[in-house]
Amino acid sequence: MAETRYASLIAELEEEYTQRFARSAQSDARASKVLVDGATHMARYYTPFPFRCQAARGAYVWDMDGHQILDFWQGHYANILGHNPPEITAPLAAAFADRWGLQSGFPDELEEEVGTLIARQTGAERVRFTTSGTLATMYAIMLARAYTNKPCILKVGGGWHGGQPWALKGVSYKGDAYSHLESEGLPRSVEGEVMLTRFNDPEELTTIFRQNGDRIACFILEPWLGAGGYIGATPEYLRIARELTAKYGAVLILDEVIAGFRFRAGNLAALYGVQPDLMTLGKIAGGGMPLAAVAGRLDIMRLVGRAGGRRVRFDGGTYSAHPATLLAAKAMINHLVNHEAEIYPYIAALGEKARRGIEQTFAIHGIVARCTGDANAVVPGSSLAGVQFPINGKDVLDCPEDTQNPAKCDIVLRERVLKLGLLLQDVNVAHGLGAISTAHTEADINRLIVAVEAVAARVARA
Ligand SMILES: Cc1ncc(COP(=O)(O)O)c(C=O)c1O
Fold first, then answer.
1. What would the pLDDT profile of 342-358 be if each residue is shown by its tens digit?
2. Residue 179's pLDDT is what?
3. How many CA atoms lie within 13 A of 210 on its CB side?
4. Sheet with strand 384-388: strands edge to edge
5. Is the overall model pTM greater than 0.70, yes or no?
6. How many angstroms is it from 188 CA to the middle of ligand 1?
7. What's the CATH fold of domain 2-84+340-461?
8. What letter does residue 420 receive in the DSSP assignment?
9. Pocket, ligand 1, Cβ cutoff 6 A
């Protein structure tokens, strides 16, 4: 229905966009002849086609048509220091000039240094590296199943843990629930072994554990939902998740691929006072390079090693613990540790300014917009934000069942109209906004608000 309501506005926006990004349109047409849908990652794709990036620095990217675009996607939220920050590129350039950087295939001291940094900043007893968050969550689940000798995985409806079999159930909202498989070609066991629960619903979690505790190997969740709508776990929910997993002998896996190093120079769960059994890290921790890790309790992690009989084959990965990747991770983590007191309040203040500014700007035009991503009782500030448009203006929309449900939230306005409308003002957002980096300034947020104003006025007119 919403699609029809905006049909002529979307057609206008697409027409303007296609003209404005003409060279990208040509590149997209060529790409579509060799790449499926002209793309590699559908999170980077939108209709009619994504612009082609040619350079990226700080808060901005430059495209093939010569636009300078203010960016809040920031490398899938990995670039907390902005695009290509000198803090990371300088040590990489120096290393490459001195016989170091591409894969050597030998262990090196950096591996130990970055492992030590991660363990120190997260309270983990052991760390193992891999190349993507997807692989990290897969290995964490394998560890949990082997450790507990139980088959089932409990995850949150709307939670995204990468494109691996146990994570490909209940990610996108279909019909009126999160209960379906996301893909064909999965092992048949996924259907029955992956169970779903509502985020921030301690009563349902308690019931599920009471009824199925003897079968649940792990509960995997993000302490701060990313794709599900930028919503923080309530302190009560994480506390109960910790208590129930301990009581029923399940492994608590906190997926901090987005949250890790986003709210402090370490894992977010530390702010909640919750220590998971295992955590997964990626994005920011890799400093813009493909590094991910599983980190956690020694008695679980040892299953991958000799002392644990190598019961879990957390192995492979020609490019795992890649030298340049470790160098970027070391530079990033050290920078965040050394500047923690300035960085996190700064990006959180900009996040707050953006959230309130967006809401007020839409309100002026009679449109109710509610930003998710707000701080809570234990997380003092947040640099993430999504924009939700409640169909019923009074609805709060604070769970994935609401933010992804077209009957409750105007998803077309968020994902198509706002996205294209802002791109026409040279501003790039994800799900309404995205992530703030240290490269963003107050002036950038003001510029964002001016662009939002133009879109809001256009929507109001339409
Ligand atoms: C919470 C979470 N877990 C896991 C992943 C998968 O990580 P990757 O894309 O590095 O495979 C993502 C990616 O967006 C994520 O947001």
1. 999 999 999 999 999 99
2. 85
3. 7
4. 370-372, 384-388, 434-435
5. yes
6. 23
7. Aspartate Aminotransferase, domain 1 (3.90.1150)
8. H
9. 76, 132-134, 137, 160-162, 222, 226, 255, 257-258, 282, 292
